[in-house]
Amino acid sequence: MKKIIRVSVDLNNPNTFPKGFVNKKLLDATSERLIKLHQQHDDADAMQDAAQYTKRVRERIGLTQQEFSNRIEVSLETIRNWEQGKRCPTGAAKALLKILDRAPEIALLALSV
Question: In this predicted structure, what is the pLDDT of residue 40?
């Protein structure tokens, strides 16, 4: 069981920051190039998470990519791009995936009308 520790921090007062929370030497030694590299890795990981989520939702409903594309009225190419991590669903598409994940029967019924 994890132990939860709550701390109060005043962002205007560095003395309130938890001790050992930041390795200042490592932070100061981090170059802009390294920061950008980390951002690229984080973005790639996020794209893969979105790709896996999209595929899991589709497979859980039991549809092929073509059937899924027809049902949600999104091009097959878009579905493939999402599942391969080339693109990430945003806005209404992201919301629709969440609804399909949590209430697939209702969502599919609403989409069939």
Answer: 87
**Both tokens assigned to 48:** 């893969």
20-77 per-position pLDDT tens digit:
667 778 878 888 898 898 888 888 888 889 999 999 999 999 999 999 999 999 999 9
Tokens of 75: 């091009």
Q: Compute the half-sphere exposure of residue 53: CA atoms within 13 Å on the CB side of its CA.
A: 20
From the number of C-beta atoms within 10 Å of its C-beta (0-12, 13-18, 19+), residue 109 rates as exposed
- The domain tally of the chain equals 1
The residues near 66 (Cβ < 8 Å, ≥ 6 apart) are 76
CATH of the domain at 80: 1.10.260.40
CB under 8 Å to 106, separation ≥6 — which residues? 99
Q: What pLDDT, on the 0 to 100 scale, is given for residue 21? A: 61
